[in-house]
Amino acid sequence: MTADVRLDSEVSTQGQQVNCTQLWRVHTAKGVTHKVRLKLRSDSYVDQSYAYAQVWDGKQWQELYALQPANMLTPTKLAYGPKRATVADFDADISRLLSLSRTVLA
After folding, report:
1. What is the C-alpha separation between 104 and 41, in angstroms, rounded?
2. Which three-class secondary structure state does DSSP give residue 4?
3. Average pLDDT for residues 77-97, to the nearest whole number?
4. Does 1 score more than 90 pLDDT?
5. pTM of the model
6. Average of pLDDT values for 8-23?
7. What's the pLDDT tens digit per position in 56-80?
8. Euclidean distance between CA atoms 72 and 69, whole angstroms
């Protein structure tokens, strides 16, 4: 199976939120390629954090999978940490979303 390719990645801080958006080319076991967008947010309140994947259908982004905020592995309150947040802070949930996206798209 061909490896997934990250096409773009961005991390930004806005007030009490740190947002991460990534665009991937995801390959399924059947050899089909999909564009998948991951959107993640670490907020100072757990319930305002999110992590979800969307797939491009040729016209618009469609919801593919979402992690419940309480089940996210990304730390909350990243905006208030001693160091600037990076994509590495979101890696565990990014890996989970990519794996689950491949499963749903298979």
Report:
1. 22
2. coil
3. 93
4. no
5. 0.92
6. 96
7. 999 999 999 999 999 999 999 999 9
8. 5
Instruction: Give the residue among 84, 5, 71, 7 at the shortest CA–CA distance from 40.
Output: 71
Half-sphere exposure of 66 (CA within 13 A, CB side): 8
Alpha helices in 1-106 (DSSP H): 91-105
Query: Counting beta carbons within 10 angstroms of the beta carbon of residue 5, is it exposed (0 to 12), middle (13 to 18) or buried (19 or more)?
Result: exposed
Asked if residues 97 and 67 have their Cβ atoms less than 8 Å apart, the reply is yes
CB 42 within 8 A of CB 94: no
Beta strands (DSSP E) in the chain are 5-14, 17-27, 33-42, 50-56, 61-67
Placement of tokens 């050899």 in the chain: 31
